[in-house]
Specification:
single chain; 2 domains; Aldehyde Dehydrogenase, Chain A, domain 1; six-stranded mixed beta sheet; Aldehyde Dehydrogenase, Chain A, domain 2; 15 helices; globular; alpha/beta; seven-stranded mixed beta sheet
Amino acid sequence: MPDVHKNFIGGEWVAGSKITRNINPSDTNDVVGEYAQADPVQAAQAIDAAKAAATSWARSTPQERHDALKIVSDEILARKAELGALLAREEGKTWPEGIGEVTRAGQIFDFFAGEALRLGGEKVPSVRPGVEVEVTREAVGVVGIISPWNFPIAIPAWKIAPALCYGNAVVFKPADLVPGSAHALAEIIARSGLPTGVFNLVMGRGSVVGEAFLVNHDVDAISFTGSVSTGRKVARACVARMAKFQLEMGGKNPLVVLDDADVKVAVECAVNGAFFSTGQRCTASSRLIVTQGIHDRFVDAMVERMKGLVVDDALKAGTHIGPVVDQSQLDQDLSYLKIGLDDGARIALGGERIDREKPGFYMAPALFTEATNSMRIAREEIFGPVAAVIRVKNYDEALAIANDTEFGLASGICTTSLKFSTHFKRNAEAGMVMVNLPTAGVDYHVPFGGRKGSSYGPREQGRYAAEFYTSVKTAYAAS
């Protein structure tokens, strides 16, 4: 039997109260590894360890923080092929996509290693004579990090790296479904030279470990990425005890295609945004809003492009789209196909369950046509390789429908018109807007986040991460 991968608490690798098996969605006979699950007592121990380490780490030098984060970055990037394969094996995105995600994680740690050396503040004159004012940022304290399964190393990286950069201690709970990449990251962080207790890994169920984070008054802030329903629970719990919180939740992202668009560009944006990474991205283009003059050409071109997509083992060369992450997600995706048909939409191509050489959770990407924005397939996040084409008359109707959603994470447009692209950037009700680019795919050094039901709290990534992971202090002194 393989060794059980343990939790990391107070500088020690600790066995859990239970064990979970990490299953390869490309081959359900393949067990990626066995991983410990923490109980509430161990979660509390991790929080205690972080609390004990928080004050001294908050007083650490910029050089100490830089050096630790740079060590993490260097090892991640040196092992990107290996870690990318692990990620593909446990989550189901293709190996090239896995390498890309691992690379992004390394770049994020490198960015925040640099930010540690750029920490600063302001010194301003008071309106009162003989008084000086300093405005500085200080660590929040103990930060609980709860990450999702769809980006098992990049999202932990963009939460953990700034938390450590700004002097916080961390307790980290990865998604129970895909602990492998998170555990590998934790091993790297454990070798970085951080003081004991500054970083802690507690794997397990959200109802156990996550709940322990929510109710413990020593957790000063929680950064969460996941479902809307769980995000609301996090918000209620944090408000009840006045803890800081940051939420990244769902999306129902539109890609508008206007009559003047380059059809080839539009199709590539749509296929990439809707179907790559098996559509399991909160920034995926699940609503394709197409004006009537280009609608038929666009649909025909989409169908032809989709016929060439290879759905297979995530580690196999030539695979474009890997499996869905697990049986539950596959069942959900397939259920929405029936919902769409029952509501009156038509499937132009795809949607069937696929068998491959090895048992896995394979599904052909599905394209709905004749959809309306009132249908459930256009209102609810499916989180799979399913997209719905919505026909509209003109740009004004396209913009109105694009904004007619409870979500507001990403929004895209394909057009050759400077007028329409400029207007769309200013009027799309989303935190991130793309012009002639897929809605999925953002840089690591700029803010990430949305509006409405997609996000709550300060942005993630880039310099804007400081808004969440620090607290502003204003200090006065008589000169």
